[in-house]
Design brief:
By secondary structure, the chain is an alpha+beta fold. It has helices at 2-10, 12-15, 33-36, 153-166, 219-227; strands spanning 64-66, 76-82, 85-93, 96-106, 111-119, 136-144, 173-180, 188-190, 197-204, 213-218, 234-242, 249-261, 271-272. It has a single domain (2-272), classed as Jelly Rolls (Sandwich). 15% of the residues lie in helices and 36% in strands. A 7-stranded mixed sheet has the order 1-4-11-6-7-9-8, with helices on both faces. The N and C termini lie far apart (41 Å).
Length: 273
């Protein structure tokens, strides 16, 4: 069973990108090609490593590179001392790639995801409901294992296609929290290719640009809203800043991304900081 869950996370790195299935590619010679080899290997970890405790100017330890498909440039990620603390800076120039943490499987019940992020420029041409314009300044994604007998024929076909493209198995389900260029706050939508990836808009458009936004999400509650039943084990977390579909540029910042069980968090909505 644990072997299956480990294999399931491997295609999380493809599943979180299924929303651009026809437009994505594997690693190409982007300007940060040399940096990619310096990132940590994808091995199971207890927690995502905090950016705030790491050294300015380096690539983040404990995070692994994931690529999208062969003709896309890589988004550049680097730790930076910014406004008095170390955060992760993302710079995307017509690019799409991300960072991921493979987690040791753990129950999702009573588990909260807490993070901060900051967008500094809009992506007015982007639209997360249009597969040809699906870009975002900030995304945080969470992968889950589950009962694959529930999958529809369409989702099985998408999973098979993704496995052919990547050589890895697609996870059962993914929640994708996104700073959506357009749409409604708290809107939950399936990506254009599969119902197994659900987008949740937690920030919208130009509103709150230039501000740190702090989010705390009850993963079980969000999963039930998105899928209609309780989640299986949590198996991974990833982030991505992408501008490949709209051929645009943007810069954004990620603060620490943390998993906490409910006793350690107050049940309150997302807020700015």
């Amino acid at each position: 069973m644990h072997h299956t869950m480990r294999r399931s996370f491997n295609l999380f790195l493809v599943s979180v990108l299924t929303f651009t299935l026809t437009a994505c590619s594997l690693f190409s010679g982007g300007s940060n090609q040399a940096d990619v080899s310096q990132l940590d290997p994808l091995v199971p970890r207890e927690q995502p490593q905090k950016f705030s405790v790491q050294e300015d100017g380096n690539l983040p330890k404990g995070w692994s590179f994931y690529r999208v498909a062969p003709y896309k440039k890589n988004t550049a990620y680097r730790l930076q001392n910014y406004q008095g603390r170390t955060v992760l800076k993302a710079e995307s120039n017509q690019s799409a790639s991300g960072l991921a943490v493979k987690l040791k499987p753990r129950p999702s019940q009573h588990l909260w995801l807490k993070w901060e992020w900051k967008a500094v420029s809009p992506l007015d041409k982007a639209n997360n409901l249009d597969k040809y314009a699906d870009d975002a300044p900030l995304r945080v994604m969470v992968a889950f294992d589950g009962d694959r007998s529930r999958l529809t024929m369409k989702d099985r076909m998408v999973a098979e296609m993704a496995q052919i493209m990547s050589g890895q198995e697609m996870p059962y389900a993914t929640l994708m929290y996104v700073w959506s260029p357009k749409g409604q706050l708290e809107q939950i939508k399936s990506n254009p290719y599969t119902d197994r990836v659900k987008l949740i808009a937690v920030d919208i458009g130009r509103e709150n640009l230039g501000q740190w936004r702090q989010h705390q999400r009850d993963l079980t509650a969000d999963y039930i809203k998105a899928y209609g039943y309780a989640p299986g084990n949590l198996i991974g977390i990833a982030l991505m800043t992408d501008t490949d579909n709209t051929k645009s540029q943007t810069k954004a910042y990620y603060g620490d991304i943390e998993l906490k069980y409910r006793p350690y968090l107050e049940a309150k909505p997302s807020q700015n900081k």
